[in-house]
Design a protein that fits this description.
Layout lengths: L6 E3 L6 H8 L17 H11 L7 E7 L2 E10 L5 E8 L9 H16 L4 E7 L3 H9 L3 E12 L2 E11 H8 L14 E4 L5 H10 L10 H9 L3 E8 L2 E11 L2 E9 L8 H15 L4 E4 L6 H9 L24
Helix pairs in contact: 1-2
């Protein structure tokens, strides 16, 4: 049976009239904290301004299925950014019982664990909402508690079930690749750089946005790979290059550079495995700290490194001055 597909996109002001209609429908809000009849367009505009502001830490998506807007979902992380609360509403009642909610949950889990670097995603659901509980369990959530008369809804106190899923549980159910568990040559293989890899490596780096520089010649890369203080590591499958990472030592500090994975092979654990391999090699070289640079506007990379316990050095200001046009490349 083909898997139900949905599309998650940012919220727009054009979505707000539908939300007013949905929130004011008692059937839609039956198992939510919202009360029917309370939504106004101005109130939804205030909500829109809040969730689209630069200060907002959470992520909000609108759910589209078969070309139409059917609802929304969100992840609200805690202060540390490692645990987030999940919420979802399918407002279009014609889209109920068609698998769209489960498809949206699975996509949010993927985004939360791979792009946001979360360790744990949790939720609370009314105990009477058996359909939602079954959906969450199918997506990998586990029941963690039963809270008696924990929410006041429609004039009555109602029981609530708390549920959560951990990153390792999601990885196990999705079959996320871990090289140490799949050493066979038919599976992805991590190895060191060879001179014959130059053309394939350059093609990957250009695909990932790095323009070739003076340090990217075949001779220079071979020197870096042969340097006892550094390395270039590749991951391949069936002879095809999937990703790279470089590292080197500098006065006790280990540096990670050129972590690159082809777009079609991302979100499979390859970047995580390459980073771990680089950490292992740098530690063997005597590194007491590992440093790397990444862009703030690359949330997937930032989330990956945060999930591996890298911390941001807020006071640091990175500055540069190019002396030779095109002379440095990008890494």
């Amino acid at each position: 049976m083909p898997q139900t597909r949905v599309r998650l996109r940012p919220v727009t002001e054009d979505d707000l009239p539908r939300w007013v209609e949905w929130i004011n429908d008692p059937e839609v809000t039956r198992f939510t904290e919202l009360e029917a009849g309370t939504a106004t367009l101005e109130g939804e505009r205030e909500w829109f301004r809040a969730v689209t502001s630069a200060e907002h830490r959470g992520r909000n998506w609108q759910i589209e299925a078969e070309g139409r807007h059917i609802g929304g979902c969100s992840l609200d992380p805690d202060a540390a950014g490692r645990t987030a609360v999940f919420g979802i509403i399918i407002g279009d009642k014609t889209a109920w019982n068609q698998g769209f909610g489960g498809a949206a949950v699975r996509e949010v889990l993927r985004l939360g664990f791979t792009e946001m670097g979360l360790h744990r995603i949790r939720l609370e659901v009314f105990a009477e909402n058996a359909r939602a509980i079954r959906c969450y369990e199918k997506c990998g959530f586990r029941r963690e508690g039963y809270h008696r008369k924990a929410r006041f809804k429609r004039g009555e106190w109602e029981d609530v079930v708390s549920m959560a899923i951990l990153r390792e549980e999601w990885e196990a159910q999705e079959g996320v690749w871990t090289p140490s568990l799949q050493p066979d040559i038919s599976h992805p293989l991590i190895r060191s750089y060879r001179p014959s890899d130059h053309a394939a490596v350059m093609a990957l780096w250009e695909e990932c946005g790095w323009e070739p520089g003076l340090n990217d010649t075949e001779e220079m890369l071979q020197q870096r790979a042969a340097d006892p203080r550094g390395f270039i590591v590749l991951v391949e499958k069936d002879g095809a290059l999937l990703g790279t990472v470089m590292g080197h030592m500098d006065r006790g500090w280990g540096w990670i550079q050129r972590l690159a994975v082809y777009p079609e092979h991302r979100r499979q654990g390859i970047g995580r495995s390459l980073t771990r391999e680089a950490e292992k090699r740098l530690k063997a070289l005597g590194a007491h700290r590992i440093v790397l640079l990444t862009r703030r506007d690359n949330p997937a990379a930032v989330g990956l490194y945060q999930s591996l316990d890298y911390e941001t050095w807020e006071p640091v200001v990175v500055m540069s001055k190019r002396l030779v046009p095109g002379g440095e490349g990008n890494g």
